[in-house]
Structures are given as C-alpha cells and as structure tokens.
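Key result, reporting period 2: structure in, sequence out.
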C-alpha cells in the first residue's frame, strides 16, 4: 500500500483518480490547487503525486519542477494528468521531471498500468470493473462514463 497525493482543479477527475487508487489498496491525500499540493507533499511526503497539468493557480509542471528541485521531495514519483498530450507537451512533461503521465479522459487500464509500473498494486481487475460499473450509476454518471469510456480497451 502506498500513499498517493492527488492534486487537481477538476473535482470529477480527482474523484475518479481517488476512487481508482483506493480500489488498488492505496491511501490518498487530496489538494485542490498548487499551493495546497506543495504544502501537503512537504508535510506528508507521499510515495506518489498525481498532478493535473492545468491547475487553477500555478500549472502542474511548475509544481513538479519545485518538488523535484527540493531534496525532501526529489525522489517522489510524480505523474502528470494531461489532456491527450501531443509530442511537444510530452517533452515538457518529461523535462519538468514527471515520472509518467496519464491522459484525460482517464482510461482505467492505462491508469493502473502507469501507477502499477511506479507503485505496487493489489486491485483485481474483475473487482475494479464491477466497482467502476457501480460508480457509473452514481450522480456523476455522465462525467464518469466519458472519463472511463476506454476502460474496456
């Protein structure tokens, strides 16, 4: 089990990421903007940070550079959440020091592949698929349906 900080400005994306991480057996922390994200990362030293590239106050790549430049958080795995990055944006993500990226809308399989490559996971695929199906019936059904449309691929 790992401690993962999710930093994002979009509530639906954050809820989905937190849900998927918890289903994989990880503990989560949340921050709604860059300043909170840096504060939480420094205070709790998570094993991984999932950070949205587009935050309401400071972009996620700037936050990544700050965290990777600090001795206390330098070794923390950081994964960027970005809207289908093109080659140039992937270069920027890598140059900022991110250890990986996950494209939005989030594909459940790709999410677990990226997280699993950087952290151990223990979420059985069949249970996850069932839980995501149940979550889709929730009040966030339209948003989560779009975000997980590629879950079966």
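The corresponding designed sequence is given below.
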């Amino acid at each position: 089990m790992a401690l993962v900080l999710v930093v994002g400005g979009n509530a639906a994306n954050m809820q989905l990421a937190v849900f998927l991480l918890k289903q994989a057996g990880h503990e989560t922390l949340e921050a709604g903007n860059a300043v909170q994200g840096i504060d939480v990362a420094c205070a709790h030293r998570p094993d991984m940070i999932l950070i949205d590239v587009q935050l309401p106050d400071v972009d996620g790549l700037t936050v990544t550079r700050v965290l990777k430049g600090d001795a206390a958080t330098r070794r923390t795995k950081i994964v960027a959440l970005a809207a289908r990055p093109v080659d140039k944006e992937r270069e920027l993500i890598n140059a900022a020091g991110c250890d990986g990226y996950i494209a939005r809308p989030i594909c459940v399989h790709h999410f677990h592949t990226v997280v699993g490559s950087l952290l151990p996971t223990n979420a059985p695929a069949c249970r996850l698929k069932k839980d995501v199906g149940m979550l889709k019936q929730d009040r966030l059904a339209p948003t989560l349906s779009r975000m997980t449309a590629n879950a079966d691929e």
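The first strand starts at residue 3 and ends at 7. DSSP finds seven helices and five strands in the chain. This case is discussed further under Risks and Mitigation.
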